Amino acid sequence: MSTSIGIHDLSLATTEFVLPHTALAEYNGTDIGKYHVGIGQQSMSVPAADEDIVTLAAAAAAPIIARHGSDGIRTVIFATESSIDQAKSAGVYVHSLLGLPSACRVVELKQACYGATAGLQFAIGLVRRDPTQRVLVIASDVSKYDLDSPGEATQGAAAVAMLVGTDPAVLRIEEPSGVFTADVMDFWRPNYRDTALVDGHESIAAYLQAVEGAWKDYTEHDGRPLEDFAAFVYHQPFTKMAYKAHRHLLDYVGFASDKDTISKALGLTTAYNTVIGNSYTASVYLGLAALLDQAEDLTDRSIGFLSYGSGSVAEFFAGTVVPGYREHLRTEAHHESIDRRKTLDYAAYRELHQRTFPADGGDHLTPAQTSGPFRLAGLRGHKRIYEAR
Ligand code: COA
Fold first, then answer.
1. Of 118, 147, 172, 236, which sees the most CB atoms within 10 A?
2. Of 16, 81, 108, 152, which is the active-site residue?
3. Going from the N-terminus, what domains does the chain have, and what CATH number goes with each?
4. d(Cα 148, Cα 88) in Å, to the nearest integer?
5. Consecutive 10-residue averages of pLDDT for the chain (389 residues)
């Protein structure tokens, strides 16, 4: 019998601040129905001046280390598409903030919003090679588009940390996977830009094409039939996208694609994304957290995942929920992380959005804003200075 490998623990963190879409709509004169119904978003997480992908990642991962210790963690995989350095992995800062052992490899992975799924699969490969090891996989992103652009309404920020190992307490990840790649310019961020460039409508079409491609490959590799799945977790750049994607999949396989069927299959997966916004690599795993935290009982049920990253790469894979999983969930902490956010008005959000560090190599301290466990204290000699509180 092959070893069971998967997600042993999962923890999320989000930002200090939140901007309701009502404030954005009031500022730019958009009918709120477009945000609440058209794209399915209520609010977006906004990082404080002293938060970034590292502080979010460390905040997500710290409770995992507190519960399980760091023994056996010999690899940390940090997935992001809002990288803070072209050379050094953001994971090395997290490794230091969490006090992980030096006998550890740490690496950063990138392929738009898909990166964390690559991280999860690579982690499974490492654990299969040496079942005594555990891998910490972290997805952390700040989604940032230009002010006054169509993408502005689909920003957000969050991190999800997952401990991957044998005999997982939460979710067994199954083989096979269905994979898909196509060279598409739907979303990208050249090295000289802080904000992403996106062709939103092209991106929706590319996502749907990738759903089809990944599912086709999954079935060609003897994957489960569609009716086996109790729920579907999609990457959610905005929650309405999950509905579009599942409708497309149902139509593709020739199943009924009415609203009720779709809501039943994925309704519970959108609860965190609709109030956090797009968290890029973390988005699909926020969907998983929301499903597990809210569903009545998924013991021994299969969940289908569709991970999409613009550019584009996608993967369809399945996970089976492990008996007793509910004792290991962090539902209360997840709600606390979301509910603790302080509401910004539009002007304060805009000011935070426009903040950048001067590139002069001088000392630049950040204002103390976050109440989270880790903060970015500033920049000194081009080096980011982090502190635990
Ligand atoms: N009430 C209800 N729905 C409304 C509405 C109203 N008053 N006004 C518009 N809508 C609907 C539209 O019909 C549309 O729904 P549909 O897609 O089901 O037809 C939806 O709201 C969005 O309207 P649209 O005109 O397409 O918005 P937009 O041009 O501002 O673009 C995005 C929306 C999501 C494409 C844009 O925010 C974007 O580029 N986001 C970033 C990229 C991204 O998220 N890509 C996804 C793949 S990773």
1. 236
2. 81
3. 5-388 (3.40.47.10)
4. 32
5. 88 98 98 98 98 98 98 98 97 98 98 98 98 98 97 98 98 98 96 93 97 98 98 98 98 97 98 98 98 98 98 98 98 98 98 96 97 98 97
